[in-house]
Amino acid sequence: MRYIRYAFLAALGAVLITVALANRASVTLNLLPGELSGFLGWSWSITLPLFVVIFGGVIAGILIGFVWEWLREHKLRAEGARHRRERDELAREVKSLREPKAQTGDDVLALIDDPR
User: Fold this and answer.
1) Long-range contacts from 28-36, C-beta under 8 angstroms, 24+ separation
2) 27 and 48 in contact (C-beta within 8 Å)?
3) Domain-by-domain residue ranges, the chain?
4) Smallest Cα–Cα separation from 48: which of 69, 74, 20, 86?
5) 62-67, Cβ contacts within 8 angstroms, sequence gap of 24 or more
6) Distance of CA 45 to CAs 25, 42, 50, 99, Å?
7) If DSSP states are collapsed to H, E and C, what string results for the chain?
8) Contact by Cβ (8 Å): 27, 52
9) What is the predicted pLDDT for the residue at 78?
10) How far is residue 16's CA from residue 54's CA, in Å, rounded to a whole number?
11) Whose CA is closest to 12, among 2, 4, 24, 22?
């Protein structure tokens, strides 16, 4: 199984390197469109290789998806924690009920309480 994982990672690395080599041209990313930046009087832009923009977009999409799912499943995690606490509390109660009680008090009253 370990060799399959290594083969997959090697193939993924080869694909990523190929995409990076094929998309080395520089592109300029602008924060605002030209008309809006002229209206506001400032513009922020950066020049990067295209593969950095592609890989950055993929990584940003994955991170946004993970955060979205984590927030969406909060209700399920909270419910699971509540059920776990209830289960532990009931297990402690069952354990305390199964333990033999200490023999203190009158033997006659103990016979009345225990009808065996």
Assistant:
1) 29/53
2) yes
3) 18-97
4) 20
5) none
6) 16, 10, 14, 73
7) CHHHHHHHHHHHHHHHHHHHHHCCCEEEEECCCHHHHHHHCCCCEEEEEHHHHHHHHHHHHHHHHHHHHHHHCHHHHHHHHHHHHHHHHHHHHHHHHHCCCCCCCCHHHHHHHCCC
8) no
9) 96
10) 11
11) 4
pLDDT per position as a tens digit, 65-97: 999 999 999 999 999 999 999 999 999 999 888
What pLDDT shows up at residue 110? 66
Q: Tell me how long the chain is.
A: 116
How is residue 87 written in tokens? 């289960």
pLDDT tens per residue, range 20-76: 899 899 999 988 887 777 777 777 888 999 999 999 999 999 999 999 999 999 999
**Is residue 26 a contact partner of residue 50, using CB atoms and an 8 Å limit?**
yes
The single residue listed with the structure tokens 């016979």 is: 111
